[in-house]
Amino acid sequence: EDGGELYGTDFCKRTTYALSLGTITFVAAIAIMLALMKHLLAAMMELGATVILLILWIFGVGFITFGGSKAPGANIGNLYFSTWISFILIVQLFAKSLQGFLSGGAAAEAHNTQQDQQQQEEGMEDVNAVVPPHEDDF
User: What's the pTM?
Assistant: First the structure.
């Protein structure tokens, strides 16, 4: 079966890597975001995930944008800019994750958020218990 003139070339392999990297990053970002929203992700796991993504993108930015005619993102265009923007964003994400890990982590933040919610709920129960019923309520 013929895959075309680019099938099996370095250009095709690099393009496949670029598409795979984008897909992996998208799925990982959604999974991490959902886990953080539900407070299921510890700071160490968040940091580990961002380290893995950072390593993939360090390799990816070189593999996709450098290499002359073999690189699909070598020419200035959408793929070139989106690759570099994605790399810059993952570096920033890694820095924030590292900062959160070093300052006590997402687990402590999740614990504080749960405590705040419990205090608010208890406060609402106390307010309802103190207010006497009004004559019109009968």
Answer: 0.68
